[in-house]
Specification:
- The chain is 39% helix and 17% strand.
- By secondary structure, the chain is an alpha/beta fold.
- Helix 1 packs across helix 5 and helix 16 crosses helix 17.
- The N and C termini lie far apart (63 Å).
- It binds threonylcarbamoyladenylate and magnesium ion.
């Protein structure tokens, strides 16, 4: 069979009709969606649906998602629409959310693998909806990959997997979400998350309140037990290279992988780690931007295969927000083989760099660490010390900012600040003079702490990263509040709508500079939350 790739935009009625004709004739067609490409057939046509299973080599007991173009189509498929669905539809449909509901008799068993429920999704991709609408029937469609391999996020990926097995691929560009939809079951008393995806658990909770998380989300499913979502029990998203997931800081990951010095090893890393890794690698998104990770994960897994290595160590993100879905996919790609570098072996000297915007809870965290026995190096104090004791520095500052900033051998800090902070150049000059000296001083303090037998030193400095002191740190932590929490909090606190809150947040400065470099982001948004928030860091430090 010849596989035609055809670029279609939502207004290409003629081309859409040509593709729809294939569906009406009982064929399969690969279509783009915002999550991943799907391999579609009429959900009412048992023979056509069988062709999907054949082309993909998909196990028959793994049910398919039925795609609709309009919410009214839901009633052609399900036997009951709960109130919770209406709430969800208002917020997340169309979009990367699939809901599982009791099916009606029109849906053949082959679609649902004999289950009494059916999974339904309305994609937000305009071409997908235009195509479903042109077909005039709901479309059953799993991801358009060979079963077990990474889901396709471009028409080329589909072609690489299914060339010669299907008549047509609709090319709608690269998928914007990049991982499959969130699957939520509404068949029980409490909604249950079966597969994490583009719509996050936090978002679902904000609409539904309680949401259970199925055990299979982050742990393997025993092949013999009956899975709630049968797809969970298969090894998935796997390239040919053996993937091993690694949990830990960027630094510990780099040390671990570089130490392997093995020809057969490669790595799947975050952008920020590029300069630190000496084995061949593929980068997939930024460390603290799970959406960017999701967007390139599957493409990157395919690129890992192209490196032709035996083993690939993959950096794992934090398992919250979209990160939960990324962790879920990576653990499955790895067949759950996981190396945890966060278990700290004792007896060493560890330097923690702590930074964050003013008022973000830095001092509060410092106090807790101090009470638990960590030695604190206060960056502000170091800065005051150098301008007091370093005569050479005072001379250089006077030359740069005017002799009058020194009165009787003492620096007028206010006057210096008013001159230095006037413009960017002033700040740069000040930093160029002070930062290397502060770093040297921090180094001295670290050495003497180490000699004195201290186990953990914390450097608390606002300009930790800019000054280069962070280079001396084994672990970097930043205090801040994540966007969704800020959003929720702003809405509650100020009694405003989500869009108003988003507008305000959009006007704020990016936290990304710090958080993208940090190993731990400590969300200091509620004192009640602090113990839990600090838990991973304290564990890592052995405190
Ligand atoms: O984003 C997506 O969801 C993509 C695009 C094409 O829409 N589709 C997709 O389909 O990922 P697939 O077949 O690769 O994954 C469907 C998942 C499987 O884990 C399957 O077990 C689950 O949905 N599922 C389908 N019907 C179900 C049902 N009745 N009850 C529980 N889980 C179901
Ligand atoms: Mg799939």
């Amino acid at each position: 069979m010849i596989t035609e790739i055809i670029k279609i935009n939502p207004k290409d009625t003629e081309k859409l009709n040509r593709a729809a004709k294939l569906i009406k004739n009982g064929e399969t067609v690969a279509m783009p969606t915002e999550t991943v490409y799907g391999l579609a057939a009429s959900a009412f046509d048992e023979n056509a649906v069988n062709k999907i299973f054949e082309a993909k080599g998909r196990p028959q007991d793994n049910p398919l998602i039925v795609h609709i173009s309009d919410i009214s189509q839901l009633y052609e498929i399900v036997s009951f629409v709960p109130d919770s669905l209406k709430k969800l539809a208002n917020r997340f449909m169309p979009g990367p959310l699939t809901v599982v509901l009791p099916k009606n008799e029109k849906i053949p068993d082959v679609v649902t693998a004999g289950l009494p429920s059916v999974a339904v999704r309305m994609p937000s991709h305009e071409t997908a909806r235009a195509f479903i609408s042109a077909c005039g029937v709901p479309l059953a469609a799993p991801s358009a990959n060979i079963s077990g391999s990474p889901s396709p996020t471009s028409a080329k990926h589909v072609y690489d997997d299914l060339n010669g097995k299907i008549p047509m691929i609709i090319d709608g560009g690269e998928c914007s979400v990049g991982i499959e939809s969130t699957v939520l079951s509404l068949t029980g008393e409490t909604p249950e998350l079966l597969r994490p995806g583009g719509i996050t658990l936090e978002q679902l909770q904000s609409v539904l309140g309680e949401v259970n998380v199925n055990a299979a989300v982050l742990s393997p499913v025993d092949k013999n037990t009956k899975a709630c979502s049968p797809g969970m029990k298969y090894r998935h998203y796997s390239p040919k290279t053996k993937i091993i997931a690694v949990k830990g800081s960027s630094r510990s990951f780099a040390d671990y992988v570089n130490f392997k010095k093995d020809e057969s090893v490669c790595a799947l890393i975050f952008e920020e780690n590029r300069e630190n890794i000496i084995v061949p690698y593929v980068a997939y998104g930024k460390r603290n931007d799970c959406n960017s990770q999701a967007r390139s994960l599957f493409k990157s897994l395919r690129e890992v295969d192209a490196l032709g290595k035996e083993v690939c160590y993959a950096e794992l993100p934090r398992a919250d927000e979209t990160g939960l879905a990324v962790v879920n996919r990576l653990l499955r790609a790895a067949g759950f083989s996981l190396v945890n570098l966060e278990k700290k072996d004792g007896g060493e000297f560890t330097v923690l760099g702590l930074t964050g915007k003013t008022g973000s809870g830095k001092s509060y965290v410092c106090e807790i660490l101090k009470n638990k026995g960590a030695a604190i190096i206060d960056g502000d104090k170091l800065a005051r010390e150098i301008v007091k004791n370093d005569k050479e520095l005072l001379k250089e500052l006077a030359a740069a900012f005017g002799n009058d900033i020194i009165k009787d051998g003492v620096l007028d800090r206010k006057l210096l600040a008013s001159r230095a902070f006037r413009d960017k150049e002033g700040v740069e000059t000040l930093n160029a003079l002070t930062h290397p000296r502060i770093t040297r001083l921090a180094d001295c303090e670290l050495s003497s702490l180490k000699k004195s037998g201290a186990r953990i030193a914390v450097i608390d400095a606002a300009a930790l990263i800019e000054s280069g002191i962070s280079e001396k740190c084994d672990i970097l932590a930043v205090t801040y509040a994540p966007e969704s929490v800020r959003l929720e909090r702003i809405i509650k606190r100020d009694g405003i709508t989500e869009s108003e809150a988003l507008l305000r947040m959009g006007a704020q400065k990016e936290d990304g500079f710090y958080s993208s470099k940090a190993d731990y982001v400590i969300r200091c948004y509620s004192p009640y939350n602090m113990n839990k928030e600090l838990e991973p860091l304290l564990k890592k430090l052995g405190l």
